[in-house]
Amino acid sequence: MKRLTIILALVVLSTPALYGAREWSLNLSYATAAPTGNLGNYIDRYSWVGFSTNLAYHFDDHNYVGIHTGWQRFDALYRNVTQEIPTGAVYGSQLRIVSAVPLMVTIAHNLGDPIDAVQPYMSLGAGMYFMTPKLEIGMYQFTNSTTHFGLMPSVGMKFRVDRKSSLDVSFDYNAAVDSGENFAGGEDNSFSWIGIKLGFTFGQ
Fold this sequence. Notes:
By secondary structure, the chain is mostly beta strands. The protein has helices spanning 2-19, 37-42; strands at residues 24-36, 49-58, 63-85, 88-110, 118-137, 140-143, 146-162, 165-176, 191-203. The protein is 12% helix and 66% strand.
């Protein structure tokens, strides 16, 4: 989390300069997500708590590369559940939490012209996911932090506000491949979810 805080502080401090720069852009978004796969089996609740940011360098009007990070929290309360863990099993009311922090390099392509009022785009991110599942049962707490390689394909639409800013709506699929030990049981410790983001892009 300290690493994420430092990155976000640098991004926020650079926002005024980016607004006037043609080559750079900054996206800040509110992020929601629907868990799928193993994550959906562990927590079957929609996530309304998250954010993301992407700092991008534009080669031209259509192609750009960037650095993406953010945070997404999945959580749900389950009552009277028996949960298997590597050291045995526990029974009771459970608060299940999974925090996800991506750190990725992204490539993107705008399908329209910069002057268009509506501009669709597509992108692909590749990098690391820092996953922290947590299980709370009464006074007991179990936590397991793992690092995963992952991919994040995305499609979205930019709605032009003025020459240097736009409203951004995007849909992405997050796939963090199997890595480390699954403390909730099972051999597969991969994570996946579908994200929906709403935010603003400043700059290009």
